[in-house]
Amino acid sequence: MKKRLIVNADDFGIHGVVNEAIYQAHTKGILTSASLMAGADAFDEAVKMIKSLPTLGVGIHLTLVGNIKTVLPAKAVSSLTWESGVLCKDYIELIKRDIKGLINLQDVYDEWDAQINKILKAGIQITHFDSHQHMHMWPSFFKVAVELAKKYNILKIRVPNESLLFGITEGNLMRWISKNGLTLLSNKNQRYLRKHNFITNDNFRGMLYGGALYEERLIRCISHMDKGLTEIMCHPSTDNQAMEEIFHWGYHGEEELQGLLSEHVKEWIQKKDIILTSYQEIRN
After folding, report:
1. How crowded is the C-beta side of 132, counted as CA atoms within 13 Å?
2. Which residues have a Cβ under 8 Å from the Cβ of 126 and sit 6 or more positions away?
3. Could you count the other beta carbons within 10 Å of the beta carbon of residue 125?
4. Which helix (H) or strand (E) element contains residue 50?
């Protein structure tokens, strides 16, 4: 079995510096795919870029967190927008609220449905589903994502199943534990998806190195790729400071962009006989 690689940039549309990085990484580097946020401020700019990039696969980055605006009016999805009329800060807060029974799953369905429709109405063919902070893997929301995927016949879904032992020597214990919790959820969901004829990646990288996928780490991921279809998730930008002033994530998007543009990385892909692809091109 050949090794096939999808390199996907998340958060397309969240800021102009992310949009520009995605454009550069696709036209000059190894980026094959990106995930578009329907409620993000730079959505319109991203749509214009997409129409000039026919070889870029574009999925939807389903969004329930990140202080991002909703596509529907905030009052229409009030269980999701209790904080200043926007989506909550992060997945921890959202999960706590769901466990307490405070999330109306109809709000989740309606907001995600509106996000999908906004992208489709912009003339973008959605190649796959993934989500901001992987919320489509959380059990309550996974059911909603599957229902919408069936509704729109978008049967390719990211499974962030980074292998359990990967990164054990990296020294970031809390992120390693979080990564493994997500992997256990993802493995269960992947079994369901494949049983019901969805297409998913076999392997995944990018959770442990989220926001810090430097060139040497990218090479490490590529040089130790397993057979089958691997997705590497990345978060490039052209200006770390501009992103940090708004989002405070501590991401190193400029360094990630340099890795995606690196000739050294391209050489490793060729050396390992890896086929670059996207969900747009995956058929079975």
Report:
1. 26
2. 58, 59, 60, 116, 119, 120, 152, 154
3. 11
4. helix 43-50
- Entry pTM: 0.96
pLDDT in tens, 30-63: 999 999 999 999 999 999 999 999 999 999 999 9
Taken as a whole, the chain contains a residue count of: 284
Whether the Cβ atoms of residue 128 and residue 156 lie closer than 8 Å to each other: yes
Mean pLDDT (the chain, rounded) = 95
Question: DSSP string spanning 132-197?
Answer: GGGGGGSHHHHHHHHHHHHHHT--BB------TTTTTTSS-HHHHHHHHHHHHHHHHHHHHHHHTT
Residue with tokens 């901001």: 132
The pLDDT of 105-130, averaged and rounded, is 98
- Both tokens assigned to 138: 């959380």
Residue 129: its H or E element: strand 129-131
As a whole number of angstroms, the distance between CA 63 and CA 82 comes to: 15
Q: What's CA 218's distance to the chain center, in Å? A: 17
pLDDT at residue number 67: 92
Query: What's the pLDDT at 171?
Result: 59
User: Which residues, at least 6 apart from 89, have a Cβ–Cβ distance to it below 8 Å?
Assistant: 65, 66, 67, 83
